[in-house]
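Lab notebook: predicted structure, single chain.

Context: the supervisor wants predicted structures on file for every construct in the current expression panel, including those that have not yet been purified. This is the next one on the list. No modifications to the sequence; it matches the entry in the shared construct table.
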Amino acid sequence: MAELQPIETALDALLAEVMPLAVERVALNDAAGRVLAEPVTATLDVPPFNNSAMDGYALRAVDAGKWLLVSQRVAAGDTAQPLAAGTCARIFTGGQMPPGADCVVMQERVVEKEGEALIPDDVPAGDNVRLQGRDVRQGDLLLNAGERLEAAALGHLAGQGITDVSVRRRPRVALLSTGDEIVDPGTPLEPGQLYNSNRPMLKRLLETFGAEVVQLVSVPDDYAQTVALLNAAAADADVVVSTGGVSVGEEDHVKAALESLGQLDMWKLAIRPGKPLALGRLPRDDGSLARFVGLPGNPVSGFVGAWLFLRPLIGALLDCPSLGSLPRLTATARFATDTGPRQHYMRVALRFTAEGIEAEAFDDQNSAVLSSCIAADALAVIEPHCQVEPGSRVTCLWLVH
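Prediction complete. Output recorded below exactly as produced.
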């Protein structure tokens, strides 16, 4: 019997010689979730001028505690005039600070009467003023290459007036479901058949990792059709992902088809769930290779395998370091378990308390029980030959996209 391999061995083989995909230019409005391919340097200060943080009155701090003439009104978007000595300006949130003014007092603390304002005496210089360049200075590194463009990053770029950005092309993925017993929802079930739960689950995960799923293919238990469908998938995709079909059964043709077309490595990993894993490469007409990842057919194994293998592969193709590994948290176990020779990835819900992070495991951790993944926040990593009791400290991989 072949020795079980550690997950690190398979990850090294999966990511070996992976090169980032090509760069393309896209409109900022279409760049959500994309990965920046080049660093971006600020060309503007943000904010571009000193402005008021609230509705109130702008003045010189040395004039606090007096009745001051309200000499001008400054709304957001107005150009402020220099502030005359011994006066104040009615100002609104975001309004440009008048030259000479160095603080703002909120309107609720001011009494205004007949064009004059009584200012309280405890208004220090700099109070309620957002200084030019407080957020970003011209010439600063705004965002680095490899940054995923989520909401705040997109706003950061828009604040510079940027309209388009250089990003990595999305990895194109073909998702294959093998087996005559697997049918699509909406089809009446015959005896011995199962609905395809892996397809929508993996499609969604791949998309959240940053990939584009370009093919959804059902592969019948037929060798010739399996060869043809794998060829077609490799021609159109950077990554071919299959569920099931790579064992040694008489009706499992993916293994033989892959070996006839390209390179296949079979792995029996020392992990639970997901012991069987197939990795390979499929040649294309242009001389390049498509990566192949064969996940187990059990839905929980597919779910865990997607986080452990597909996420870092997509990250490598996008040159996105944050996708390379899941954040690790240390939590207090609120469950008991013991492991055999394989490392167990248990689905857990996390609770963040004043005393620290707690991990609560779902009762049924069987690889066919997909309900354990619905509310899972993390995978608790339990080492081989380990006994965990309530109160034990466990490492958790936080499931963030």
